[in-house]
Amino acid sequence: HKYQAVGSGFIVSADGYVVTNYHVVEDADEIEIVTHDGSRYNASIKGHDAKTDLALIKIEADRPLPYIEFGNSDNAKVGDWVVAVGNPFGLGGSVTAGIISARGRDIQSGPFDDYLQIDAPINRGNSGGPLLDTQGRVLGINTAIFSPGGGNVGIGFAIPANMAKGVIDQLMSNGSVARGWLGVYIQPLTRDIADSLRLEETRGALVASVIPGSPAAAADLKPGDIILGVDDAAVAEFRDLPRLVADRKAGSKVTLEIMRKGKIIESQAKVGQMPDDTADLAAIETDTEPKPGRLGIQLAELTPGAREHFKIPEDADGVLVAAEEKNRAAAKAGIQAGSLINRVGQDKVSMPEDVVSRVREAAREKQPSVLLLVEYAGERRFIAVKFATS
Question: Around Cβ 102, how many Cβ atoms within 10 Å?
Fold first, then answer.
């Protein structure tokens, strides 16, 4: 079945390069561009980046074309007036005005979400169009709307110009985007996890696991490390880390500020290039709401028979959770039979007695919860399990 879709874009060079959203032109057999004066051009895709939903397309014209320039989105403030230009519902060129409602929005659309939120009305067909400041410079690319019913409700999202510029420059020169990569799975440092580690603050990115052979492994990063900074930039919250690393060139060296077992250390890492087919620098969300009650798990050594019974790969190690008691703290926190406990706090464990002694130690010290690094179905995550309150 063939169908026709409409979207928006804007010309960024006199020789006919056009910026739009990737989802506007994805899987397109033919692309036709109609400019403001009614001229029609065939276009081809020169490059795209699915992670930021950007595409660069090219039209062949027999004359230099008028084009628009990027502004500095870092200077954009909440409350600044903006104008959204586009082709809503395929009606043709339309302009709507509004203000910047918020900055740095994460709408779970990709690993590098950092959207400007705007209240200028945008609708279907506006995707890929420019968001302009009052001087007519591009502050962002209108990309998404929050719309329970399909129409505009005054909440739209635009990719900031400063993020888009770097992507577009790479697409123009290489046709693709190369990003820096460390090779760590990270998760948020929640209040429960911070309490388990006796930390006052919840800033930083908690390393849940390190990919073997990755730059992070070469830099000796370990599960339980909290990455607080990259060079001079702070990792205020865990999602800052993928963006900071992705902006670095492969082969460049970075200094990571790390908290390990309560001490601040520095580690040098040589940034690798992010593989095309992986989201290895992504977040693992975990629910760690307070769950009162004993831990309620039965532990066992990881024997060949246990591996076979629970279908645990040969390269996985740790202490086996042989059974969990329903409605107890560990089960409520998401720990189930067949899971492996790799660490208690930031200490590696290999035998059931290692887990028991460290859990008892945490209880003796009157910690509110104990932190376990749990592996299940190939995914590792830290889980803070509350001790019984009575």
Answer: 13
Characterise 309 by phi-psi region: left (phi > 0), alpha (psi -120 to 50), beta (else).
alpha
Helix (H, G, I), strand (E, B) or coil at 293: coil
- 362 exposure class (CB count in 10 Å sphere: 0-12, 13-18, 19+): buried
Q: How far apart (Å, rounded) are the C-alpha atoms in residues 353 and 349?
A: 9
- Measured at the CA of 119, the angle between CA 115 and CA 121, to 5 degrees, comes to 110
**pLDDT digit string (tens) for 282-339?**
333 333 333 333 577 888 888 887 888 888 888 888 999 887 777 777 878 888 888 9
297's CB contacts (< 8 A; 6+ apart) are: 321, 323, 324, 325, 328, 330, 331, 335
17 within 8 A of 70, measured Cβ to Cβ: no
- Give residue-wise pLDDT tens across range 176-206: 888 888 988 888 888 888 888 888 889 999 9
Backbone angles phi, psi at 29, to 5 degrees: -80, -40
Question: Which DSSP string corresponds to 166-214?
Answer: HHHHHHHHHSS---EE--EEEEE--HHHHHHTT-S---SEEEEEE-TTS
Q: Hey, which residues are catalytic here? A: 23, 53, 127
- H helices of the chain, where? 22-25, 161-174, 191-196, 215-218, 240-246, 304-310, 329-332, 352-364
Neighbour-count burial for 184-217, b at 16+ CB within 10 Å, e otherwise: bbbbbbbebbbbbbebeebbbbbbbbbbeebbbb
Answer yes or no: pTM beyond 0.70.
Answer: no
**Cα dist. 304→230, 335, 351, 373, 388 in Å?**
42, 21, 15, 22, 34
51-80: burial string, b at 16+ Cβ within 10 Å, e else: bbbbbbbbbeeeeebeebebbebeebeeee
Q: Which two tokens stand for residue 375?
A: 């592996």
Q: What is the CA radius of gyration of the chain?
A: 25
